[in-house]
Amino acid sequence: MEKFNIHPEVQELFEEMVGLRRTIHMYPEINFDLPITSKLVSDYLTSLNLEVHTEVGQSGVVGVINNSTGPCILLRADMDCLPIEEANNVPYKSKIPGKMHACGHDSHIAMLLTAAKVLSRHKDHLKGSVKFLFQPAEEGGHGAREMINDPKYPVLDTEPLVDQVYGIHISNHGKLGDYLFPDKYVSCFTDFFDIVINGKGGHMSADTNNPVTIGADLILQLQTIMSRNVSNKDRAVISVTSFNAGEANNAVPAICKLKGTVRTFEKNVRDLIFDRITAICKGIEIEQNCKIDFKIIELYYPIENNSECNEKALKVLRKIAPEATRDSVSPMIGEDFSYLTNRKPGSFFMLSTGCENSIHSPSFDIDERAMMIGASFFVELILDLLV
Ligand SMILES: [Zn+2]
Ligand SMILES: [Zn+2]
């Protein structure tokens, strides 16, 4: 780790941080149902003599360094795991069948708890406040939104009022310490869609429309949206990921169901794509004398980084990892940190742990030394902003 300027107090806490991460890794919990993880986090924050709020947004936890003067900076970690069976054979392998911390949220918790411990020692020198936010249900459950809207403790709007928000997601896109740090969008509009083609069904010899061939035609027409309608200056993805119809060789099914996802960065591109899908469905309805139901399931908005917050974060990151490589291409992922950047200026980046398998893989694991970089980032950022 000689290429990195790790904060000395984080370095001292490395073994403890690894222990925290491995304990959390062994007992992964899903969505909002996080009794073990929430308790571990709140007990740890309480042991640091911080102000602690529990059951925020059902199972979120917030630790606060509350100083009456100066700005309030929010640092975020997510706590939920994925419904994946772990394929790694490591001493800290998941003990819960079918559940795994395959998105690195275990390391996010350990990094932020470690940063909270170091900063709690310096709290009398801080000219401002810090909120350490540990959220449930990032993987599709809108946990950040639940914490923002919790009437008991709306995290952004409770004193001390939050001024800026920062977060890190671990990844494996480069060598240890490399970072994916786009200027603007760190994630994209993430939308799902369901399409149901309703025909009549019947004997294969009957004179009826066939939802299977209509579905095949519809998929091909959806592919033309990217080539004919979306400008080549804009990035977008339209993917049909599921096609279900019929069982028998000799019967035309009554329905065909398609599922898919649309990823975009700009709202006008997103609107254009959904208008085109609607128009294509309508055209096929008339042509084929069938009824098509098209439903959009909105997931997350893009995380939009603030340029001033980016500058502050990049300055700290360059100090800690001066030789690391920066990638700035916006990734087509969904992330509910966007609920925070929709409300407050902030910055978010992805920190590579240099390992082989990607997040959401049953073989995902990390080089735990990356957590020293992440925890040092949080510590140095707060010392830079509030001292
Ligand atoms: Zn994930
Ligand atoms: Zn994640």
Summarize the structure.
With 387 residues, the chain is α/β, with parallel strands linked by helices. Helix content is 34%, strand content 23%.
Would you kindly provide a written description of the structure presented here, covering whatever features stand out?
This protein has helices at 8-12, 14-26, 35-47, 105-121, 143-149, 211-229, 267-288, 307-320, 338-343, 370-386, and strands at 51-56, 60-65, 72-78, 129-135, 164-171, 179-180, 189-198, 202-203, 236-245, 251-252, 255-264, 291-300, 326-327, 346-352. It is of the alpha/beta class and 387 residues long. It folds into 2 domains: 8-187 and 302-386, Aminopeptidase, CATH 3.40.630.10; 191-300, Alpha-Beta Plaits. An 8-stranded mixed sheet has the order 1-2-4-3-5-14-6-13, with helices on both faces. Helix 2 (14-26) runs antiparallel to helix 4 and helix 8 crosses helix 10 (370-386). The model has no long low-confidence stretch (mean pLDDT 96). Bound molecules: zinc ion (2 copies). One zinc ion is lined by residues 103, 139, 359-360. The site of one zinc ion has 4 residues, from loops. One of its GO terms (molecular function) is metal ion binding. Its cofactor is Mn(2+).
